[in-house]
Specification:
- The chain is α+β, with helices and mostly antiparallel strands.
- About 45% of the residues lie in helices and about 15% in strands.
- It has a 4-stranded antiparallel β-sheet with strand order 1-2-3-4.
- Helix 3 runs antiparallel to helix 4, helix 4 runs antiparallel to helix 11 and helix 6 runs antiparallel to helix 11.
- It is globular, with a radius of gyration of 23 Å.
- The two termini are about 45 Å apart.
Length: about 400
């Protein structure tokens, strides 16, 4: 019988199975484990983990398994087709992850969305924020072995998908904002659906809290685990709720308000401990702040068009054709040459888009910086010194989403 040849590079750090002991600092011995990439565990990411007993000594991340080349593809597509390209990076948070792209394109095109469109964008962004937090908390639950939390979280998320389908016509990647406005206006029955959704969410979250957050096992698994203090958080450039969990009071929506965020009142949720429990509590409390913002938007939602008058002027048939009829206007308007930058607060943190335009319908270059990419270093640092069994808890306490990091 012919001997099977392993089609792997057997050098340390190159394979996906337990390899060999290697020397550690101080003369100790360590075992190198390779975690991932498998979807149910580490996600689309591989981690090289050196352990001394069950203590994690070092972690080397190996991202890039779902790299789509978004930035390069953007150079070869008309600017109005970039929205569905960019939103795939974050999937559940498709509204927020495309927000900076839309803001940058509006600067390049000289467009200004009407007030109603601004309010509708904020409404969908905050619903998307709640849904994404539910997604991350559900995955945190299953990473801790709490399968009921996983199923309950996804069941509640599905209600958000149904409301998104009513408003935007799609359940997940909604491509809702467009340069100069939004694709669809809301109808009275949509508003009622959102109100019912918030009512159900508040009721279900009480049960979810009893089941998951108030569970002593959950707290024991997260409290004091994966600590990153404020100084280290700032040095590593952590963003979003994961920076705020370490005491850094920063939220783009407050510091540089965009669209209707300057017209709504909300609290920037901050915790001080910087551990996995604090990162969980920040996201939990943010869901309630987001629901409050949605309620304020519904009360103050102005009347009027949902597309910039400059676009309406170019298509007199808009009233007959609807928003879909005005989208064709993009085919004959061009971005002004120059560089345009925009930042928005996505669910997992600040997201930046930097466009270089040369006057053509294709951008010369697009830089797309996502929160999961910026938070990766802190996640790895938080794992060091902890126990191997705590690694899944630390991983998902950062809400790390490989497609968002890899782009």
């Amino acid at each position: 019988m012919q001997k099977t040849e392993w089609p792997f590079n057997l050098e340390v750090g190159r394979t996906f199975f337990v390899q060999s002991e290697e020397e550690l600092r101080g003369g100790g011995r360590g075992l190198t484990l390779v975690v991932g990439p498998q979807h149910p565990g580490s996600g689309h990411m591989r981690l090289f983990v050196v352990v001394d007993g069950d203590i994690i000594v070092d972690v080397v991340p190996d991202p890039g398994f779902v790299h789509r080349g978004v930035e390069k593809l953007a150079e070869n597509r008309p600017y109005w087709t970039l929205i569905p390209l960019v939103e795939k990076a974050s999937i559940m948070d498709s509204m927020n992850i495309t927000y900076p792209l839309i803001l940058a394109l509006e600067k390049a095109l000289g467009l200004e969305p009407p007030p109603r469109a601004k309010y509708l964008r904020v409404l969908m962004a905050e619903l998307s924020r709640v849904r994404t937090h539910l997604y991350d908390l559900a995955l945190l639950g299953v990473f801790l072995g709490h399968t009921t939390a996983f199923m309950w979280g996804f069941a509640l998320m599905d209600m958000y998908a149904e409301v998104f389908a009513k408003i935007a016509g799609a359940r997940t990647t909604i491509a809702y904002p467009v340069p100069g406005g939004v694709r669809r206006d809301v109808k009275p029955d949509h508003v009622e659906a959102v109100k019912r959704l918030l009512e159900v969410t508040r009721r279900k979250l009480k049960d979810f809290k009893t089941l998951f957050l108030d569970n002593p096992v959950t707290k024991a698994r997260l409290e004091g685990v994966g600590i990153v203090d404020a100084k280290k958080t700032a040095e590593l450039g952590v963003v979003g709720p994961f920076a705020r969990a370490s005491g850094i009071d920063y939220d783009v929506r407050k510091v540089h308000p965009y669209d209707a965020y300057g017209d709504v009142d909300f609290e920037v949720v901050v915790e001080k401990d910087g551990d996995a429990w604090a990162r969980t509590l920040v996201r939990w409390r943010e869901m309630y702040e987001s629901m409050s913002i949605v309620e304020q938007v519904l009360k103050a939602l102005p009347e009027g068009d949902v597309i910039d008058q400059a676009l309406l002027f170019k298509n007199p048939e808009y009233r007959r054709e609807g928003v879909g009829g005005v989208l064709g206007v993009y085919t004959y308007i061009y971005p002004e040459p120059g560089e345009y930058l925009a930042v928005a607060e996505a669910t997992r943190g600040a997201t930046l888009v930097h466009l270089w335009a040369t006057g053509l319908q294709r951008v010369h270059r697009m830089r797309f910086v996502t929160p999961s990419w910026r938070n990766l270093r802190a996640m790895v640092e938080a794992m060091k010194g902890g126990r191997l069994a705590d690694m899944p808890a630390v991983y998902m306490s950062f809400g790390y989403f490989p497609p968002e990091a890899d782009r």
